[in-house]
User: What shape does this take?
Amino acid sequence: MSNSIARAVLASIDADEVLTPADLEAKYKIKEGTQKSLRARGLIPFIRLGEKIIRYRRTEIENWLSENSGRKARRAGGAR
Assistant: This one.
């Protein structure tokens, strides 16, 4: 995707609704390395604009967090 197309796509999305990887780490405490791993495994919703531009929709991330919030606790509890 060319930079001009990527800019047009970003411009069409409300800026408050889109998070950079750094924003996601600051707001939700998900480290950028963890984000990369989750993206590679297809476990987190994201938008790829070109080869290096990654963005997240805030609403998708909040839904994803709600759906997956008990996973770690269940996994830890089952390990007894």
Notes: DSSP finds five helices and three strands in the chain. Helices lie at 3-12, 21-28, 32-40, 58-68, 71-78.
